[in-house]
Amino acid sequence: MNPFFFRSHAHAHSHSHSRHHGSKHAHHAYPDTSDSLQTPVPRRPSIQIDNPSPSKPVPMASSLSTSAVPTIVSYNTPPATPPLAKDEEPTGIAWCTARARIPTPDGSEYFLHIYENSKDKKEHLAFVFGDAIRSKSLDKVRWNETEMDRIKRGAYTGRLRNTDSSSLGTEFTTASTETTGSTASLIPLVRIHSECFTGEIGHSARCDCGEQLDEAIRLMKAEGSGVVVYLRQEGRGIGLAEKLRAYNLQDLGYDTVMANLMLDRGADERTYDVAQAILEDLGLNQIRLLTNNPDKIEQIEKDSQIRVVERVPMMPKSWEAIELGREMEFEVKEGAVENKVVKGKELDRYLKVKVERMRHMISIPSNMSI
Ligand SMILES: Nc1nc2c(ncn2[C@@H]2O[C@H](COP(=O)(O)OP(=O)(O)OP(=O)(O)O)[C@@H](O)[C@H]2O)c(=O)[nH]1
């Protein structure tokens, strides 16, 4: 355990501004004096970074005796690439603008990353499990930035801890490193998941989107590594309003493909260039992709270094149960947020159309009647 205290301090630069990517530029001017602190004053007197890497030496609070609140001499996220020059624009299709730790009820945690991109106005996301996977664009040192700027956007290693002055110099419990387990050398599991408000939030039994998201997260927690790229492509890219219109057509008997076409939309309007850029930014050139959709594999590999070395199928839980003759035992927890599973005739019809008309690579249970 390495408690790592610091007080925000001036770099060699004569002034400071924080830089935001994309079309938004926010410049915060701080006093132009090398003696004054150039970062906003934190509400608490100190911030601790628990560094999970024992190989990385960090100063102990007790060894920093020159002032009551020690000043760090170097930041503990070494830049992988040269700093951005003044007014340099981010390059590439997608870049990460913020990252933060999200603890989950079972005690595990992941880092949520937000991406901006040059293709659309949406904020796409990446759920990153394990400490080994880092965003290059987030970690890149920016022009004249301060350590507090880096802390605020999440460009640190280890864990942040709020401390009060009475605890300075004492030992802290090291943040959990359970999720950085022995499987770190495995080719990471990746799920490229398209937003589905109805299936993930709305308890819908028309699709298995919520079940798939939960299952992907469960597998990544178990492996201690992995990434869910969460794309804001509601309704296979047609948006929620159009998807609801499609549902009305489905209630008249049209299937999920036909309903889209009747709205003058494509059966699937998604592209995966932003997902490609996010995976590249996270340094993932070889992945094990959780999907049944061949289109995702083809598009993610197209014109890119990324290789899907393994497809990990996502068998709907209810179909798995039917296949095993355990349908009667299959329990759907009412209103369960975690481990939600879906079943029913509407789901069966939806999945069957994906197999028959959208090339999805799952077997329809031989003993199933639709
Ligand atoms: N238009 C339309 N979209 C739907 C319908 N049901 C679900 N969706 C959307 O379909 C998308 C499902 O995305 P994913 O689960 O990532 O992908 P997939 O194509 O099913 O492929 P997998 O990786 O095998 O799950 C989400 O954007 C949902 O909002 C529907 O009936 N009509």
From TrEMBL:
CDD domains recorded: GTP_cyclohydro2
Pathway: Cofactor biosynthesis; riboflavin biosynthesis
Keyword Cell inner membrane listed: no
Domain GTP cyclohydrolase II: 98-313
Keywords, in A-Z order: GTP-binding, Hydrolase, Nucleotide-binding, Riboflavin biosynthesis
Region (Disordered): 1-63
Pfam families: GTP_cyclohydro2
GO MF assignments: GTP binding; GTP cyclohydrolase II activity
EC numbers: 3.5.4.25
Comp. bias regions, Basic residues: 8-28
GO biological process, one term: riboflavin biosynthetic process
Catalysis performed (reactions): GTP + 4 H2O = 2,5-diamino-6-hydroxy-4-(5-phosphoribosylamino)-pyrimidine + formate + 2 phosphate + 3 H(+)
Family: Belongs to the GTP cyclohydrolase II family.
Protein name as annotated: GTP cyclohydrolase II
Lineage, opening ranks: Eukaryota, Fungi, Fungi incertae sedis, Mucoromycota, Mortierellomycotina
